[in-house]
Design goal:
The structure is a homodimer of 476-residue chains. The first copy, chain A, is an alpha/beta fold. The first copy, chain A, folds into three domains: 64 residues, Arc Repressor Mutant, subunit A; 249 residues, 3-Layer(aba) Sandwich (Aspartate Aminotransferase, domain 2), CATH 3.40.640.10; 102 residues, Alpha-Beta Complex (Aspartate Aminotransferase, domain 1), CATH 3.90.1150. In chain A, strands 6-14-13-12-11 form a five-stranded mixed sheet, sandwiched between helices. In chain A, strands 15-16-19-18 form a four-stranded antiparallel sheet, with helices on one face. In chain A, strand 15 and strand 16 form a beta hairpin. The two termini of chain A are 21 Å apart. At the A-B interface, helix 4, helix 7 and helix 11 of A face helix 4, helix 7 and helix 11 of B.
Chain lengths: 476, 476
């Protein structure tokens, strides 16, 4: 969590704490005066300038100043601004005050989290009971490194029906979450001699770090208003000197994509780009790692089918229960091309995750509970998305939401140069929210738009209204 | 599974199949005659010599020969031995017969597996229900890479009480099985610059392979009748030329041990060796990875406490629920030295295994169900061990069992040169059993004794008597 720093002539570290935003600022300023960090006579910035710096409303700062004037810590005089009052600074207390954590935001709009409060506990327990009652003894043993055959079989049916994936249980590997699957794949690609992996210009740093730890350098693909541009792959040009990102991209033989719903920007990969990347993979023998993290949640149009359907020999399809159910289950899966499956299975060594949990998910899918849950979650998230759009129209008409046809998050486009201050303002309003820049690859080229990535999946129902209000207060 | 080959003048591949040993051999020989692989007039080896070659009783071979003489496939004449009868060889069938799998052994004495039939399903479900009902919503999220605090807290209490481990929940990491924990540790040690890991002369090839894949060469420590000799660690000698295993061992800074119950040989690390290895770790800043895989199952003496207690700053204590409950749960844990914990947690990235499963184990431990289960399993395994010893005394008095004070397996010492044939004989008797040589490190030096590693944990209760009988038939 970034700690807001306000420049008050001196480099003053303000840590707001306690309930309420005005109260938090007031306490922080009072403490700074009391301990001498703000010396008597020092002139404070104008409420407008401090508000901009801290990313909060000007009124809040003005009211905070007024409180402290009333208490005698500050003085305000027409023409001379607000200054620290001339009064004896108290000696520091004998024992240091206990360290106080900066206030944790009460609400979270951090993307990538489903609404955990709506996890279908009763249904899940029912499935767990059935799984535990009917599991053969051997299910409790070490078992197939690919995971339980019951789950792999059910997944093949589900993925074909819901995502258009062409699979066969022999080539499905159950994993302990997407990250474990990605790590396994990268280790296998590294063992094959690959040293680079093309990625999108926007994505998750956790994934890039994991890829790099497996020995593959991540190379961001170019990105423009039409989305990720895969034509940089395999378009090798001879160059006299130097080696550019473009050269490295041209030579890479694997790419990680979120084709159905770019994370976090929210667009689907354009049909012509889908065709181009598959054509590249065929021509070069390359592999496409398709991160289908929230394929279940599509609202306005026909579902975007899995890219894997275009070429099961070159696409690894990766799915997860982290968004549709809960990340805590640590259940994900991959559908592997025949040429890659044996190596991945050998490298996996043993099954990644609990056999009972796998059998429970198989039961959950078979009984129809999964479909019911996804349907009801889709309705709930869609309603939240509509609430968000309506709230923006009313309170922040200049903010445009994009990437809203699917998923659990939206991207709110902000005026240039305001991203950081809006994120801070959100924090002061008690809402944890991420700026888009946090999701930009460090080596990405081109223009970076200012935006927020707003995950509307995370808040529980009872907190949703409050979260949305707090967000709107932080928006310009 | 090794396929027995009998040398009958020609190199004849005999694949016994079908129920029963005699029947299997008879079918295989008949098929060989029928298809012409054994030509008319060919003299078969004596029943004694074929029995020795196949690792089965002489009588079984003699009876099989008699059956085939009665059927007319063989002829037996005093002084001329048993020969293939002169009769028309049938032409091969138009279509090749469907491939028949070699018969899978009906019983397993492969070590490392608990009795899965006695997994306490009802108690586990009860704990799962409680866990699922009481878990806070946030437990379903991504969570702490170390795993759930509830489980880590309960584990610290349990490990202190049951194994003498000195821990603190901050330094406990829950893993998806021992192998995942070992992989994580090796990757961290590799990132620290280590390139070797000392191991015991006997252990699991799966673990050595995993260590090597993480970039650490495995170096076997010397081994004699007193067990693993750690004094090769850190005893550097200057040498004019060449680089020996001893030199590499002297330079290594990490060692993987099974101090409470050497796997598979079954002895505890001697007190003087325990002290020596800890002294080495302190002197060199080295790390000891303590694989405490079956510490719960000790029968005759006081439990051997964890080595970690001697020096929590240099010992990583690794435990697992795979032996005490079931491998299918994929639940293990490590207690890390303070100097290693942050790196391991950072490298882990996210939690390794299902939060619900972790909360279920925490509940299972808290309610006392774990202790009850371990106590009853200990009684059952101890009774099996006693059955095994009694059966050996009666049927194979020359076979000595060692490493029997603890655990789920025993080592049966065999006459020199007989290990492979006894393993094959076991197979013919329908028992999967492993020879000790399978657990020997390829670079291990010194004498290798012939022995079987008999895991008495795996068979379900109803099959135990039959398994034991079948084993005894295979013993010399």
């Amino acid at each position: 969590m970034a700690k807001p720093r306000a420049t008050l002539g001196i480099d003053l570290h303000l840590e707001p704490f306690g309930p309420g935003l005005r109260r938090g600022l007031t306490d922080a300023l009072r403490e700074a005066v009391r301990t001498g960090r703000l010396a008597p006579g020092v002139r404070l910035p104008s409420s407008r300038s401090l508000a901009a710096d801290l990313g909060m409303a000007r009124n809040t700062v003005a009211e905070s100043y007024a409180d402290l004037v009333a208490e005698g810590w500050l003085t305000a005089r027409q023409g001379s601004g607000t200054r620290v009052a001339d009064r004896a600074v108290l000696p520091p207390p004998e024992r240091p005050a206990p360290y106080r954590e900066p206030r944790r935001p009460a609400y979270s709009l951090v993307p990538g989290h489903p609404d955990l409060a709506s996890f279908p506990r009763a249904e899940w327990l029912k499935a767990a009971r059935r799984a535990l009652t009917t599991a053969p003894n051997e299910a409790l043993g070490y078992g197939d490194p690919r995971g339980r055959i019951e789950l792999r079989t059910v997944l093949v049916g589900y993925l074909s029906r819901a995502r258009g994936v062409r699979a066969d249980p022999e080539r499905v590997v159950v994993c302990a979450g997407f990250a474990q699957a990605l790590r396994l794949l990268c280790e296998v690609l590294h063992a094959r001699g690959l040293r680079t992996l093309a990625v999108e210009s926007y994505g998750l740093a956790e994934h890039w770090n994991l890829v790099e730890r497996a020995g593959l350098r991540t190379l961001p693909l170019p990105f423009d208003e039409h989305g990720t541009r895969p034509e940089a792959l395999g378009s090798h040009r001879e160059r006299a000197t130097g080696r550019t990102l473009g050269d490295d991209l041209a030579a890479t033989r694997a790419v990680l994509l979120t084709p159905a719903h770019q994370f976090p920007l929210g667009d689907a990969l354009r049909p012509s780009h889908r065709a181009a990347v598959v054509e590249w993979a065929r021509r070069t023998g390359g592999f496409i790692l398709e991160d289908d993290y929230d394929g279940e949640f599509r609202y306005d149009r026909q579902p975007v089918g899995a890219l894997q359907d275009l070429d099961p020999d070159h696409v690894v399809h990766l799915g997860t229960a982290s968004k549709s159910l809960a990340p805590g289950l640590r259940l994900a899966w991959m559908v592997l091309p025949p040429s890659l499956a044996p190596e991945v299975v050998r490298h996996a060594g043993g099954p990644a995750t609990s056999a009972l949990e796998q059998l429970t998910l198989a039961e959950f899918l078979t009984s129809g509970a999964y479909d019911r849950h996804v349907r009801s979650a889709r309705l709930r998230y869609r309603r939240r998305r509509d609430d968000l759009i309506a709230a923006l129209a009313e309170h922040a008409p200049d903010v445009r939401a994009t990437g809203i046809a699917a998923g659990l998050h939206a991207v709110l486009r902000l005026p240039p140069g305001t991203e950081q201050s809006v994120v801070r303002a959100g924090h002061w309003q008690g809402v944890a929210v991420h700026g888009l820049s946090r999701y930009r690859h460090p080596a990405a080229e081109g223009h970076h738009p200012d935006a927020l990535v707003v995950g509307y999946g995370a808040p529980p129902d009872h907190a949703w209204k409050g979260t949305l209000e707090a967000l709107c207060k932080a928006l310009p």
